[in-house]
Each structure stands twice: as structure tokens, then as C-alpha cells.
């Protein structure tokens, strides 16, 4: 099927999808979304379009289903080719900030300012709908795949070229809300992995291990030392920018991420993962001690804290798998208490346990926890801090 026919088919599929979303089943959900949409627009029609896009593509709550996902489950009559298209919308739709490279008829060539990739994008509403998207201007929109190309979906917010810093602030907010967005670009992902890998080497060189334990004050001091060495490494590639004052300033800005609530804690660990980077854990020493010497009772404090670590999805799987590897002779005994499963064996059951309890980790385990901001976002953030 050629591009024109694909675009026409996309328009039909989107119309059917919108009709489903505005049906009585989703009326309460749509009403909430319409109210929220007035943060973006004063126009009643645009608010409804925003709301429909929201419920189609965005989950109202973690673990919930989008309307598009519900549609795919409910509409068993879909032709295989149509289902394939809609599944690609479910999996690969991109909400982003784009700069217009060129416009020809109903086609825009766009560069996504979050991931740096180029998107050849069609308007299902024809050339007139995108006439205002001039070269160099900016478009905030969702795009969905169709064949090897893309189509615009929902409302397009247009910004003139002179609004560069306004647009940069939007880019910064998008990346802060979803730091994985830039990693749609393989090149950005490789670069981020290289940076985090270098920082991991700094950590190992500084502390001789991938973990440091102590009081909150001790860990804060260790974190400062680590950040200063990372800042020196990062700035070494910037001629004239490696003076001690600048290194200290960069490190001090990064230090603001240290959790203030940990400063007075007695048991804190700083771990460094070669992909995810640095992270902090309260009562990690108690958890490690439970792995080293499992308590005799399931009600013991160490067992309870391990159980809490297992239940808390914000604590990544590697924290527990690392300890399990460090104490292979005692880990089974511990988890039999934690889970109250006398036959549990880490060697055969551990991976399944972590996969079930830590799904978010396994969905993003290969993506660095590093926020890559493009120049337009950095400039906007600098302007915000000086104004």
C-alpha cells in the first residue's frame, strides 16, 4: 500500500477509534480528561480533542489500560493489517516537540527535539491543516506510525521560531517527566551508556567497590567526592572549563539530588550500577546482614525490611539480586522466611520472583538513568534560573 493510501487508512482508523472513545463506556473518564485539558486551551472543541487523545494514549493510573488498549481487546473483528497498525500506535506513538525542517503539501519533515530523530509526517486533514507550520517553527504534537512514516494525531500547538526558549522549557519538562524519551535514538542511548560507564569507573576507583555504606552524613560526604570527580571528568573535554571553581559548582548543583531525609539516618548505602548510576538505600545494612545471617523468625526486623524491599517497586531488582549473589549459601534460608515458602530456591525461583515484583525494572533495565538535555532545553533552563 502506498503512502497516500496508508494515510487515508490511518484517518479512517483514527475516526473509528475516536468514536469508540467518546462512547458511553468512557464518559466519566473523558469528563475528567476534558477538565484537565483546560490547562492547555480555552477552546471547548480543542479541550475535547486533547481529552480524547489523553484517554486513547495515556494511562489514567499506573497499571491501568488506555482506551486504545481496551479497543484492541474488545474489537475482535479487526482485520489483521488494521490491528497491526493500531498495535504500532499503542507501542510506538510519540508525543514530542518538533522543529519543522520542511513542508510540502500534506507532509512535514520534523526533527524531534527530545530524541533528535527525523519524522516524515503526514496530515490526515490535508495540506490546509498544516499551512502555518513554516520552516524553523515548532510543533508540539503526538505522531503515530504508519508504514515507515508517521501521521499527526490530535491537536498541534504551533510556536514561531522566535519562541525558542519557550519551546525549550517544554522540551525540558517532557524529558524530566520521561527521561527515557531521548533513548529512542540509538546514538543517544550509546552515548548515555558510555557516560554512565565512565562514572561507574570513577566510583570503583574512588571507593574500590560498587557500594559504600555508613551514616547519612558519611554517605553524603562520599557522594560529594564522587560528584566532584565526575564533574572533573565531564569538564575535561571542555577547553578552559576545568578550573576548580567550575568543577565544584557543577558538583554542588548535582549534590542537590541527595535525599535530605537521609542525612540523619544511621544506615544508608550508596550503590552504583554500571547502567543506572548512583542510588541511595535506607537500612541497606540491615538487609545485607539478613542475607549474611538469616534471622530465625519470619517476624524479625531484618526479614521484614527485606520483605519491604521486595514489595517496593522503587527499589530496583539489582539491589536484591546483588545481595543474593554475594550470599549464595544463605539466601534460600532468608527468602523462605520472607515469602513463607519452605521450598523456595533462589537459583530456580529468584528470577521469576524479581520479575513479578519488579516489572518496571525489567522494562527499563537497559536504559541509563541519565537525563540527556538538548541545547535548546539547557538554554531555557539557564534563562529560568537567571531571570
Short note summarizing the structure:
The chain is of the alpha+beta class and 387 residues long.
Strand order of the largest sheet: 1-2-3-5-4
Described by the principal axes of the CA atoms, the overall outline is globular
Q: Write down how many β-strands occur, each being a DSSP E stretch of 2 or more residues.
A: 8
The first-to-last residue Cα distance is 53 Å
Unreliable spans: none
The mean pLDDT is 91
Explained architecture:
The protein is α+β, with helices and mostly antiparallel strands. The chain contains 16 helices and eight strands. The chain has helices at residues 3-21, 27-37, 44-57, 67-74, 80-92, 164-177, 186-207, 216-235, 244-255, 284-292, 301-311, 317-326, 331-339, 346-357, 359-364, 375-386; strands at residues 94-104, 107-112, 118-122, 138-146, 149-159, 211-214, 268-273, 277-282. The strands form two sheets. The protein has a five-stranded mixed barrel, surrounded by four helices. A hairpin with a 5-residue loop joins strand 2 (107-112) and strand 3. The longest helix is centred in the middle third of the chain and has 22 residues, at 186-207.
Amino acid at each position: 500500500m502506498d503512502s497516500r493510501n496508508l494515510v487515508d487508512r490511518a484517518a479512517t482508523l483514527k475516526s473509528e477509534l475516536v468514536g469508540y472513545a467518546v462512547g458511553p463506556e468512557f464518559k466519566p473518564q473523558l469528563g475528567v480528561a476534558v477538565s484537565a485539558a483546560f490547562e492547555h486551551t480555552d477552546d471547548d472543541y480543542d479541550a475535547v480533542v486533547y481529552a480524547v487523545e489523553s484517554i486513547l494514549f495515556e494511562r489514567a493510573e499506573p497499571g491501568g489500560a488506555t482506551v486504545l488498549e481496551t479497543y484492541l481487546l474488545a474489537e475482535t473483528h479487526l482485520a489483521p493489517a488494521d490491528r497491526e497498525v493500531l498495535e504500532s500506535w499503542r507501542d510506538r506513538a510519540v508525543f514530542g516537540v518538533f522543529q519543522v525542517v520542511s513542508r510540502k503539501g500534506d507532509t512535514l519533515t520534523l526533527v524531534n527535539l527530545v530524541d533528535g530523530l527525523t519524522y516524515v509526517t503526514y496530515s490526515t486533514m490535508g495540506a490546509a491543516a498544516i499551512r502555518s507550520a513554516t520552516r524553523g517553527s515548532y510543533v508540539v504534537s503526538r505522531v503515530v506510525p504508519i508504514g515507515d512514516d508517521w501521521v499527526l494525531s490530535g491537536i498541534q500547538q504551533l510556536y514561531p521560531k522566535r519562541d525558542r526558549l519557550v519551546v525549550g522549557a517544554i522540551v525540558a519538562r517532557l524529558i524530566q517527566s520521561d527521561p527515557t524519551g531521548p533513548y529512542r535514538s540509538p546514538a543517544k542511548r550509546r552515548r548515555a551508556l558510555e557516560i554512565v560507564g565512565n562514572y561507574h569507573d570513577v566510583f570503583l576507583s574512588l571507593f574500590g567497590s560498587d557500594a559504600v555504606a555508613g551514616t547519612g552524613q558519611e554517605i553524603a560526604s562520599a557522594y560529594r567526592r564522587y560528584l566532584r570527580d565526575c564533574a572533573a571528568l565531564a569538564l575535561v573535554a571542555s577547553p578552559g572549563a576545568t578550573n576548580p571553581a567550575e568543577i565544584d559548582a557543577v558538583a554542588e548543583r548535582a549534590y542537590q539530588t541527595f535525599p535530605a531525609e537521609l542525612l540523619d539516618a544511621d544506615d544508608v548505602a550508596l550503590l552504583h550500577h554500571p547502567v543506572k548510576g548512583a542510588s541511595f538505600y535506607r537500612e541497606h545494612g540491615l538487609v545485607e546482614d539478613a542475607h549474611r545471617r538469616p534471622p530465625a523468625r519470619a517476624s524479625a526486623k531484618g526479614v521484614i525490611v527485606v520483605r519491604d524491599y521486595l514489595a517496593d517497586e522503587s527499589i530496583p531488582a539489582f539491589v536484591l539480586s546483588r545481595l543474593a549473589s554475594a550470599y549464595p549459601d544463605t539466601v534460600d534460608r532468608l527468602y523462605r522466611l520472607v515469602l513463607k515458602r519452605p521450598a523456595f530456591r533462589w537459583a530456580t525461583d529468584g528470577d521469576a520472583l524479581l520479575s513479578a515484583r519488579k516489572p518496571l525494572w525489567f522494562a527499563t533495565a537497559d536504559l541509563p538513568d541519565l537525563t540527556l538535555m538538548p541545547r535548546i532545553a539547557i538554554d531555557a533552563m539557564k534563562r529560568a534560573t537567571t531571570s
